[in-house]
Amino acid sequence: KPRWVRATGMQNPGYGGQRPYLSGTFTDISERKADELRKSDFISMVSHELKTPLTSMNGYLQVLQLRATRGGDDKSQGVLNKALIQVRKMRSLIDGFLDMKRTETGKIPLDKRVFDMADLIREAEMESLATISSHNVIYAPVEPTMVCADIDKIGQVITNFINNAVKYSPAGTAINVSCVTIEGNAVVMVKDEGIGVATGDQPKLFGRYFRADRKESQNISGLGIGLYLCKEIIDAHHGKIRVESEVGNGSVFYFTLPLET
Predict the structure, then answer these.
(1) What are the Cα distances from residue 36, in Å, to 209, 216, 227?
(2) CA distance 175 to 139
(3) What secondary structure does DSSP assign to 177-216, as a single string?
(4) Are strands 21-28 and 5-12 parallel, antiparallel or unpaired?
(5) Which is nearest to 253 in space by CA: 231, 222, 220, 224?
(6) Which residues contact 242 (CB under 8 A, 6 or more apart)?
(7) Roughly how many angstroms between the first and final C-alpha of the chain, as a whole number?
(8) Which end of the chain has fewer CB atoms < 10 Å from its terminal CB, N or C?
(9) How confident is the model at residue 107 (pLDDT cuts 50, 70, 90)?
């Protein structure tokens, strides 16, 4: 039966006339690998199954929006437009799950075009106003910031940062969102007043399926793939993604994208 192993080793120089030699260890990781494969297959299957009803929902909403437009019902038209935006984001999220399979081959499809980060941040602000009532989400003014990127996938990263800030910080606290230009890069930051991330966990935070083993987060749902996908997306855009945090004092998640010149 095939087994998965993790091998580590090092070369040791010879001393006292001895020949140099190799030493190392082999660790059987078959069970861990099997768990990862089961999770990956499950997510891929569920994502495919969700696409069909989502496509139908999108069609029904478009029909209702058309009727509202013809009837001059501006209020309903605005609500339906927001619903369609959420359907688009859900489709993008599902595509992100499917992209996780593609990361195994290093191929994430990108639909790059030039756009203004200020518009994307403004769209995130409108979404927050409609969907987040438990926290005070504060958006700093954003100057025109042109980048060449996949707008849906970058929007997915911003949404993930904000949703995580909501999940891991107490209700009523502030979440600050900003986008500034630093040394030829657009830098998007999301700062919260949450439980924070232990120093030892920070290097692992963007790994696939990683969940911090802490009492404060045991009842918070998640699969440990959101930040992993965020990193894959930002890496594919030749940007950087980081976290600065202290336990009990909140976190700052940020990513960079090269400016369009």
Answers:
(1) 8, 25, 16
(2) 8
(3) EEEEEETTEEEEEEE--SS---TTTGGGTTSTT-----GG
(4) antiparallel
(5) 231
(6) 253, 254, 255
(7) 55
(8) N
(9) low
pLDDT tens per residue, range 223-252: 677 888 899 899 999 999 999 998 889 999
Tell me if 5 sits within 8 A of 28, measured CB to CB. yes
* Confidence at residue 157, expressed as pLDDT on a 0 to 100 scale: 93
* Amino acid at site 72: G
Contact at 8 Å (CB) between 147 and 114?
yes
Please give the structure tokens belonging to residue 138: 């504060």
The predicted-structure confidence for 194-228, as pLDDT tens digits, reads as follows 999 888 888 888 887 777 766 666 566 666 778 88
Q: 174-186 pLDDT, tens per residue?
A: 999 999 999 999 9
Which domains are assigned to the chain? Answer: 1-108 (no CATH), 113-258 (3.30.565.10)
